[in-house]
């Protein structure tokens, strides 16, 4: 996404962000046992993923249509 110029337009970035969000949610829904919460690398990655999902959903929710 960093390599794409702003000429692509806001709608392109909104669409790709929403698609990424939906794919991550679908992946979590289809394999919830893959999420672990612990002090190892996998647990930290899970926590980071959930924080990123929350942040992305808040950004998308605040966008004007």
Query: Segments where pLDDT lies below 50 for 5+ residues?
Result: none
Q: Secondary-structure element sequence?
A: HH
State Rg.
14 Å
Largest sheet: none
Separation of the first and last Cα atoms: 21 Å
- The total beta strand count reads 0
Structural topology:
Layout: H1 10-30, H2 41-62
Helix pairs in contact: 1-2
Features:
65 residues, mainly alpha, 0% strand, elongated
Structural description of this entry:
The protein has 65 residues and is mostly helical. Helices cover 66% and strands 0% of the residues. The chain contains two helices and no strands. α1 packs across α2. The two termini are 21 Å apart.
Quick description:
By secondary structure, this protein is mostly helical.
